[in-house]
Amino acid sequence: MVASATDGGGAKPLPLLSIGATPSPLVRSGLQVSSLLIPLLLWTVISALELVDGKFLPSPAAVLESLASMAREGILFQDIVASTGRVFAGFFLATLVAVPLGICMGVYPAICALCEPLIAMLRYMPAAAFIPLLIIYLGIGEEPKIALIFLGTVYFNVLMVMDAVKFVPKELIETTLTLGGRGRQVLVQVVARYSLPSIIDTLRINIATSWNLVVVAELVAAEVGLGKRIQLAQRFFRTDQIFAELIVLGLIGFAIDMGFRLLLRLSCRWAL
Amino acid sequence: MELQVRHLGKTFGSGQHSKEVLRDISFALRSGEFLSLVGSSGSGKSTILRLIAGLEQPSSGQVRVDGQAVQGPGPDRGMVFQKYSLYPWLSAAENVAFGMRLQGLPQRDINERTAYFLEVVGLQDAARKLPRELSGGMQQRVAIARTLATNPKVLLLDEPFGALDLQIREAMQDFLLQLWQRTGLTVLLITHDVEEALVLAQRVHVLAPHPGRIVSTVEVDLDKSDLNQLRLSPAFLEKRRTLAGVLRQLEPALV
């Protein structure tokens, strides 16, 4: 397989793996489809040939069947709502705190000096290690799970927003001041607006962490949720259910990622 | 309007690591005048402009506008930077309107003035384009229009054409001179380009570096009706040679 040279014509295409080579759209799509298709094919072949005990590696058909039956019983929908609800609640709160704080830390060195050492240390305390404390403080309802997701993402969000803000050209801020802009106008209308593409990208990357943490939280204590279902499935040796839930987790995460990309494309055409 | 710069001094840092960048800078600028400060890098010319704009505080001396000491940045002293000066998410027209919007002008006035100043800089057809769709010269014209739209008493230009190609730079110099002749603006231009200073300004202050100070002043009394002629005229070339010589002497270590 070869990449087509960008200038077309009679030029000999570069080999795919040479630096600077750009595959043609067709080749690229082919590679992208293969990325998912090859593992699926391998899985199908291995389980069809019964190379691995079906109890450990359920066939794609069994997983699909299990997925369908969970959907019919309504538990799939229930689990999805419970888990995504927790992720969005916790991550929304983390964003609500992190974006203004990160912007202020990026703009005002004094606020940065006050907050950064603490945040830099808290960031290295694994969020999961807070679970026992959160249960003691907040019980076993929704609150500790939302709090865990908040704790696990807020510090990263703050620091990454702060970094994004540092890329706002000084000239743009100073231009705004000489045009008569005041502190708040500069922060909201210029700094935040200029950093918006990077902030959306930061959120897109960091929401993956909350998706991790929601499963951790549900493994510890929950009635419903995708993580909880996986734990129950383990108890009954239902690997087909575990596989089904894992695939659902992956698909939702992928959908959230695409959602952020779409948001970026719609709100920041100028930056693309 | 009168802009007075009195015994301005600026030292960055303190103690052993302190660096004096400006020493005893004094000059004045009256309504309708076009003044240029010329100096090499290290002459502190941008710092002078930043002090006048209020983006830095002087270590000694002061800047006065109509007798009032400058305390901080304000729209009476409009500034145009060399680059990164447009809001990339706003169209040309929205960029021009931005300063007026910050000041809370009525929407009708904003619309009228935006259209007017886009026309002044000859960009009425590019009103809806994003900055990245405009050439470097057009971007700087939008930046100038945006500043003019907020009705400043003086226009501070910090090497506004320094990032442009030579041909575009000359076209922009023609544009700026005509704009000044037409509108009676008051302009303070910072540049390292001797020719640019002579083509545009009525008076040129020459800065020596380390620390920056004014060492000589040149009055430019040349016929500026045709800039292409001017650039080739013996009188102009002679002045340019002299001024370039002065600047070179101030920087012997470079050669």
Structural class of chain A: mainly alpha
Intertermini distance of chain B: 42 Å
Q: Mean of the pLDDT scores of chain A?
A: 91
Radius of gyration of chain B: 18 Å
Report the portion of residues of chain A in β strands: under 5%
Please summarize the sheet with the most strands of chain B.
Answer: 6 strands, mixed
**Rg of chain A, please?**
24 Å
Largest interface: A-B, 21 and 29 residues
N to C succession of SSEs of chain A: HHHHHHHHHH
Which ranges of chain A are low-confidence, i.e. pLDDT below 50, for 5 or more consecutive residues? 1-9
Shape of chain B: globular
Tell me the quaternary state: heterodimer
Strand order, sheet with most strands of chain B = 6-7-8-3-9-10
- Report the portion of residues of chain B in β strands: 15-25%
The class by helix and strand makeup of chain B works out as alpha/beta
Number of helices of chain A: 10
Total helical segments of chain B: 8
| Major sheet characteristics of chain A | none
* Helix share, percent of chain B: 25-40%
Shape of chain A: flat
Q: Please count the beta strands of chain B (DSSP E, at least 2 residues each).
A: 10
What does this structure look like?
- The complex is a heterodimer of chains A (about 270) and B (about 260).
- With about 270 residues, chain A is an all-alpha fold.
- Chain A contains ten helices and no strands.
- In chain A, helix 6 (about 140-165) packs antiparallel against helix 8.
- Chain A has helices spanning about 25-50, 60-75, 75-105, 110-120, 130-140, 140-165, 170-180, 185-220, 225-235, 240-265.
- In chain A, about 75% of the residues lie in helices and about 0% in strands.
- Chain B is of the alpha/beta class and about 260 residues long.
- Chain B has helices at about 45-55, 90-100, 105-120, 135-150, 165-185, 195-200, 225-230, 235-250, and strands at about 1-10, 20-30, 35-40, 60-65, 70, 75-80, 155-160, 185-190, 205-210, 215-220.
- In chain B, the strands form two sheets. In chain B, strands 6-7-8-3-9-10 form a six-stranded mixed sheet, sandwiched between helices. In chain B, strands 2-1-4-5 form a four-stranded antiparallel sheet, covered by helices on one side.
- In chain B, helix 5 (about 165-185) links the parallel strand 7 (about 155-160) and strand 8.
- The longest helix of chain B has 18 residues, at about 165-185.
- Chain B is globular, with a radius of gyration of 18 Å.
- The N and C termini of chain B lie far apart (about 40 Å).
